[in-house]
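Help: read this over?
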Amino acid sequence: MAYSSRGTGGRSSSRGSGARSGGGGGGNNAMPAVIAGVVIVGLIGLFAVMGGGSKAPPPAPPPAAAPPPAPVASGPKVPVLGPKPNLPSTIVSRAKALMPKIKAEAEKGSKLREQAMAAKKANDTQQWQALMEEAREVYKTVRDEWIAIEDEVSEFLTRNPSTGWDENMLMDAYLKVESREVQRLIDEPLSGMAKTGRGH
């Protein structure tokens, strides 16, 4: 057989032949085991990698977005004002000079109203209405004079505007006390008369 001819060999040295035969025989038996071991190790490693990939932990969630900064508390907006318009002293002087007349006419109107109410209590409708109309005219006439002052202030501000300033603010800046007196002595009585049906 072919195996026996390789086993006896053609070499003259039995020592050398025996060494070859023993070494060759051992190599032939070990080689398949080594290859099988490498394949098995490789397969184990492959399964480990595949199995590990399937069991890998889920990716970490993205970091939470930072909350928006808290709004800074602030007070109410203060309106921006330009420089105070320089209302002519002639307008201010006329307004102040009108005040004694306003007070006198307010007192006259008040007395007429009292007489009118007395006539109403006496069931004298005609006298009541006549006296109320007279009182109304007294109030209204002097009120028109004050309105003329307010109109001058408004016209001045139109010609000399300043950021944020209006007619009422300018009146308060120069004639606040006088404006309140006109409201108390003239405007409020006229408003009360309007509620009775005899107002302006």
